[in-house]
Amino acid sequence: MFYRGEDLRLTDGGLGQEAIIPCYDESPTWLVDNAWEKAMVVGQNALSAYMKFCKDENLPHSYLLGLDILFMGKIDPNNNRRLIDLRPTLVEGPCCNSYPACPAVDALKLYRRLQAKGFDPDRVEYPSHPTMVRQKIANLLIGLHHRQGGTGMPRVAVFTRPYPESEEETAHIEMLKAFRKAGMEAWRITPDENPEVHNGKLWVHGKPIDVVYRRIERIHVPVFYGETLGNKIIHETPDTLFVNPWKIDDLRSKTIEERAFRRWEAMHPDQPVSRPKTLLDDEVTPENVAELAAYGGWVMKKWNSTGGKGVFLHFNRKVSDPAVHYLYLDASGRHMIHLDEAGVKKELEALKNFHEDTAVQQLRLVDARVLSDTQRLVYDTRINALYNPEFGTWDFISGMSRSVACGPDVTNGNSLLTNISSGAEVSPLVFGHTRSEEGSKDIQFGPILKAIMENRDSITF
Q: What is the CATH code for 129-243?
């Protein structure tokens, strides 16, 4: 089944400071068949919009990206016990997801954990099997090197933060192992290795690096590497190919992403990007946001708000309370703003003459599985996509589910923002097509995902 003694732990933290990340092995997320088909369309349309935007703006595109695709609905303003417009919805990425997600390497461990628990994840035919994800990323680096005119195996590196500050230490080490197993000379680069910049390339230990897999944002490079070296790494390394180029970090904004999607849809109205209704600039008015409130509330996403840092969910309690209780029992976590009628009026008044680099979106409620009478599991799905330069296509290669427990008995959670500060943990994600008609009969879905599987666009509770 798997190698005896294989380390299946998911860990977080720097060297010598690792902590175990809890995992909901008993409640994996199954994204299969009809739901997977619909999610694929969402992902491909979003990626096409991203590629058009990069081409139009003369930006180098990334070769590895993450897409947060959640299964969501909004509240019927005429019946607050009915959820309508059920669909897979892109809430982040690809434009505001500038670097690859570490679940690309956790996919194998999550797959092995399911096997160890007695599940059969291979009842599903994956778009990319979890045992091959790391090899596919390694092959990407080799292919990029050859397309740039390089010969033989490239010298590659994982570029990141100093060891004590790294949040994804295990992922870095695992990727270095994968690159070396594929026959490449691979180096870890942090300030501890004293990297240099010479002749248009990034160097470490006296060796020029051909291709870099990075795990640090541009804004952090001068912080950790110093202003002088940091600026050289970003601006003076044209001959070192970064899987996620530095310039692409400029897109880490929900407002830029929305403009990219609108530009795409103007040319391709038959290929819309499934996302919440979004207001920008002078569209953010009390009247327009009041229309969002009628369907349950709104979400304010400030510039560079990825990771939930600048995301604020405003619930119109008069409309949203029954659905919130039905789906989550309780949703009172960080950045959850519950408003009575007076509170809604006050918030809307504050939007007069609103001028901020902020997107305001329709509040859409994410699916949740029933764990017990007092606990629900809110989950999102992160799908990682790899660009195939040979065919000019994107391949879905891995995924994971970030989960937050909700309910009156939950002390760290009750949040619809599935980030670490909100109590997020991990659930294995199994996605693809079931190999038999009976393949999904015993799978536990949340009510929204179940309805989407059955081609329904609403549920009444």
A: 3.40.50.1760
